[in-house]
Write a structure and sequence with these properties.
The structure holds 3 protein chains of 3 kinds. By secondary structure, chain A is mostly helical. Chain A has one domain: Helix Hairpins, CATH 1.10.287.3510. Helices cover about 75% and strands about 0% of the residues of chain A. Chain B folds into 3 domains: about 80 residues, Four Helix Bundle (Hemerythrin (Met), subunit A); about 30 residues; about 45 residues, no CATH class. In chain B, helix 1 runs antiparallel to helix 2 and helix 2 packs antiparallel against helix 3. The longest helix of chain B has 26 residues. The radius of gyration of chain B is 22 Å and the shape is globular. In chain C, strand 1 and strand 2 form a beta hairpin. The N and C termini of chain C lie far apart (about 100 Å). Classes of the chains: A mainly alpha, B mainly alpha, C mainly alpha. Chains in contact: A-B, A-C, B-C. Chains A and B meet through helix 1, helix 2 and helix 3 of A and helix 1, helix 2, helix 3, helix 4 and helix 5 of B.
């Protein structure tokens, strides 16, 4: 644990980061910007895992392992998302969100 | 005491750069601000004594993912292009919802009695490695293998998708939008 | 005595209908003709045997017994139930004989007349259906069963009139016949319901019974001054008016001549159109006793008026089948008025007997007239009088038989029509002088127009024919000869021995003064027709000009069709139906369309939810989670 910092502060921090990510996801008009916001969200949840592991259950390491997994999955997902975006760009030559509204009423 | 100050500095940096990343109008700056946020995260990991995790964070995230994003941004955009912003109405609504959500989170967090166990264990990479590869209870060998399979699948999938179709048009078409607007 | 074998008489035509109807494509025409004729021949022989058996053996204490074979079919309440069965009494046996005879003759005749026609087997199946329905009607034990067969007869008439269904005029005529009779049957049905509700029974035996609760107690319930039974009987008679083509529902009968001539002979001369007369005869005790015979006087006057009007119209028509149709209407008028002036006991019931007697003889000579006309039409391929002339050289048998029938209907002494008409005139003379005078006039007119027809067809100059007319084949002339025989000798049957209103025999004798008057009037009519029509001259044109506008009225059948069309189109369609159609279109339809439109508008408004934008979905997701969390939190706090 970090001396002098209670768990509440860290959890506050991660919550703020999480909602900043959500805000960005909903508000941005660009597909890559949405990806960046997703990264923010994922990261804040990783910190959550780690912090709870360190503060509440210091003898075990599940939090760390899980954090590693999340990082791996996030990386894979980002790679795939970029691949899709590039493919889409080839098709419609745009990465704006408003050009991808085909599956609607 | 010192840790507290360092933590707060890191926290402020992270929040500021996160907001900047989300609201910046230039693509590349947005990515770079994200890089700073991730570095801040690594700093927190260092504070917590999870050195291995911090290293992973820096390597994978800051080194891998950010680079990937920068490459894709460079492929797609002109550097000096300005991004559009969403309508003000949408921004306000989203802000309200996010603030409400944040309020709920904080209320829940602050009303829960966490029984913190003070300690100063440090974790060696030895333990982490053993934990990943152990068969006994509390071991993570299976998820480890699964993750490797997942990464393999992601790799193959990314190659297949990014390869594109045989008849991918070199002069780009007008856009999905106009093609799809056949009915109202 | 057991005469339950009578059930075979209607069942044979039913079996024929099913057989010929189901296999109409597979049975070759000639075989169908043989099957039909043989079947009806069997029924004919059976009915003759029944008549022999019944009339000579069923008298008990001088009263003819009534046999009923029935089984309960539907039970409406513990008092009211509907049976199906057979009622055997003098008039039903007589009608059996009439129907099977004429039907058999028509079947044999049709073998020759309809030869080469496409729907030959279909025709015979329809004829069988009609025979079955008519026989069922005649044998009905109760009002409801009679109504069922009444409608069946109407349906077969529709099928047969519209037999040439590719001709628009035939289709229109079939529709008209069905609709007019259906409208009349509405009255019939309401009448049945009224009578059965207030008397508690449908059964003829119970209704007609002299100590039943109708005849003894008809004053019990009354409505607007008349007993409910009077209203019921008037409504029932309305059905009879429609089916028997009396005024004002007579408009369908001339148009029904669009059907093939054998059909006209069978249905619209001899059997179906007398169903109304049969109905009144069947319910005669009711008609006589309820309201002291008020409804019976209505019957008499309608019959008299119809006969007079029809006779006048028949003088001017040029289509030979139309002349015969109006002649039928006129003669049925005679039958109705004979029933109308009749009383009940013994010799007083002369009108009843005369009506049935005339029904019998009329069936014979009218069927003969129609079949003879059919023979002429078959040879010349035209219905119009103007296209015919001098045919006596080419068609001798048709000529002689037609002459015999014409003499019979004109009341020439010695022929069957003379005897039956004389009985009617005697009954009218005793009871209602006005109707008697009108009937004598009608007798004169009948002779005139019938001989106008005869001279027009068989005498006069030859017209241009496509090919020389030749006599019809044997299968068509044998029925003519048989019917001619019946038209002469049918009058000598002592009807009053067999048929009477109170089921007891009585003797009737020829009233000489009246007979002389009737014959004289008839012979005057014949002579007038001779003068006008035997040789070609312009006396008829001069007479037409003399009558001027009246002639025009008569030629157009007194514009009844136009009046009815006006009423239906302008008043019923224009006003009533238009209002109802407006309501249907702008209220009912608008409501249903409105429901659809409202749904569509609503869905148009909310379809934006599926916007296709991922961010909107994410927003909804996050917003939903937040709201849900708030709710749970709120509950958790409390």
């Amino acid at each position: 644990m970090i001396l002098g910092v209670s768990i509440y502060e860290i959890l506050t921090l991660t919550s703020i980061l999480f909602f900043i990510g959500v805000y960005g996801f909903i508000t941005r008009t660009n597909l890559i910007s949405m990806l960046i916001s997703v990264e923010l969200i994922l990261n804040s949840s990783v910190v959550n895992f780690v912090v709870i592991n360190k503060y509440l259950f210091p003898e075990v390491l599940q939090g760390v392992f899980f954090a590693v997994f999340i990082i791996a999955v996030a990386a894979a997902e980002t790679a795939l998302a970029i691949a899709i975006i590039i493919n889409l760009y080839r098709l419609i030559s745009s990465v704006e969100v408003k050009d991808t509204e085909v599956m609607k009423y | 005491m010192a840790e507290k100050i360092i933590f707060y500095i890191l926290a402020i940096i992270m929040v500021v750069f996160a907001v900047a990343s989300v609201s910046s109008r230039k693509m590349l700056r947005s990515v770079v601000y994200l890089l700073f946020v991730l570095i801040g995260m690594a700093g927190i990991y260092f504070l917590i004594d999870y050195n291995f995790l911090a290293a992973i964070q820096l390597t994978v995230y800051a080194g891998g993912i950010i680079v990937l994003m920068i490459f894709s941004v460079l492929l797609i955009h002109h550097i000096e292009m300005e991004l559009e912003v969403a309508k003000t109405f949408k921004k306000i609504i989203t802000a309200i919802v996010c603030l409400a959500g944040l309020g709920i989170f904080l209320t829940t967090i602050y009303s829960h009695p966490f029984n913190v166990i003070e300690n100063s264990n440090s974790t060696t990479i030895n333990e982490i490695g053993k934990g990943f590869l152990s068969y006994e209870a509390g071991g993570f060998i299976l998820p480890f293998e699964v993750i490797s399979v997942l990464l393999l699948a992601a790799m193959i999938g990314a190659i297949v998708i990014a390869k594109g179709t045989k008849a991918s048009p070199t002069p780009p078409k007008e856009g999905l939008r106009s093609g799809a607007k056949t009915d109202n | 005595m057991n005469i339950s074998y009578i059930i075979l008489v209607p069942l044979i035509p039913l079996a024929l209908f099913v057989l010929l109807g189901l296999f109409s494509k597979k049975i070759p025409p000639s075989i169908a003709g043989w099957i039909g004729s043989l079947g009806l021949g069997t029924a004919f022989v059976l009915s003759l045997y029944t008549a022999y058996h019944y009339f000579l053996g069923a008298k008990l204490d001088g009263v003819y017994q009534t046999f009923t074979y029935k089984s309960t079919w539907i039970i409406f309440s513990d008092k009211l139930h509907m049976d199906m069965g057979m009622l055997i009494d003098p008039i039903s046996v007589m009608m059996l004989v009439v129907v099977t005879t004429i039907s058999f003759m028509v079947h044999v005749y049709s073998r020759g007349y309809m030869k080469g026609d496409d729907g030959y087997t279909r025709f015979f199946s329809y004829l069988a259906l009609f025979s079955f329905s008519m026989l069922g009607l005649v044998l009905a034990t109760n009002l409801f069963q009679m109504y069922i067969f009444w409608e069946l007869v109407g349906a077969s008439s529709f099928l047969l009139i519209g037999y040439y269904y590719t001709k628009p005029s035939a289709v229109a005529a079939a529709k008209k016949a069905f609709i007019v009779t259906r409208f009349a049957d509405l009255g019939f049905l309401i009448g049945i319901l009224v009578v059965s509700y207030y008397s508690g029974s449908f059964d003829f035996g119970e209704l007609n019974s002299l100590d039943g609760n109708v005849i003894t107690n008809w004053t019990a319930t009354s409505f607007m001054g008349l007993s409910v039974f009077t209203w019921g009987l008037i409504l029932i008679f309305m059905g009879g008016v429609g089916k028997s083509a009396m005024m004002p529902f007579h408009i369908w009968l001339p148009d029904a001549m669009e059907g093939p001539t054998p059909v006209s002979a069978l249905i619209h001369a001899a059997t179906m159109v007398v169903a109304g007369v049969y109905l009144v005869a069947r319910l005669f005790p009711l008609f006589y006793f309820v309201e002291d015979g008020f409804v019976l006087s209505i019957v008499a006057y309608i019959g008299a008026i119809s006969s007079l009007v029809a006779a006048v119209i028949a003088i001017t028509q040029t289509d030979i089948k139309r002349v015969l149709a109006f002649s039928t209407m006129s003669q049925i008028g005679y039958m109705m008025l004979a029933l109308g002036v009749s009383k009940y006991e013994g010799h007083e019931g002369l009108g009843y007997m005369a009506s049935m007697f005339h029904l019998f003889t009329h069936a014979m000579f009218k069927a003969l007239l129609f079949l003879g006309a059919g023979s002429v039409i078959h040879a010349i391929h035209s219905n119009e009088l103007a296209d015919m002339g001098g045919l006596r050289k080419y068609m001798p048998i048709t000529h002689i038989t037609f002459l015999i029938a014409a003499l019979s209907i004109a009341g020439f002494p010695g022929f069957a029509g003379f005897f039956s008409k004389d009985e009617i005139l005697a009954a009218a003379f005793e009871n209602n002088r006005l109707i008697y005078v009108s009937s004598v006039i009608v007798a004169g007119l009948t002779a005139f127009y019938m001989f106008r027809l005869y001279f027009g067809i068989f005498w006069g100059k030859d017209k241009k024919y496509e090919h020389t007319p030749h006599e019809s084949p044997l299968t068509m002339t044998i029925p003519l000869i048989f019917l001619a025989f019946m038209s002469v000798f049918g009058g000598y049957i002592p009807f009053s021995e067999f048929i009477s209103a109170d089921l007891k025999s009585f003797t009737s004798h020829l009233d000489l003064p009246l007979a002389v008057i009737a014959s004289t009037v008839g012979i005057i009519g014949i002579c007038l027709a001779y003068v006008f029509y035997k040789k070609e001259n312009n006396l008829s044109e001069k007479a037409t000009q003399l009558f001027g506008a009246f002639y025009q009225w008569t030629f157009h059948k007194f514009y009844f069709d136009e009046i009815y069309l006006f009423i239906t189109k302008k008043i019923i369609f224009g006003i009533l139906a238009a209002a109802i159609a407006w309501f249907d279109k702008y209220v009912v339809d608008a409501f249903m369309i409105g429901v659809g439109n409202v749904t569509m508008a609503f869905s148009n408004q909310i379809k934006g939810i599926q916007s296709g934008k991922v961010q909107d979905y994410a927003m909804a997701f996050v917003g939903g989670v937040v709201v849900l969390a708030m709710v749970v939190f709120y509950i958790w706090i409390n």
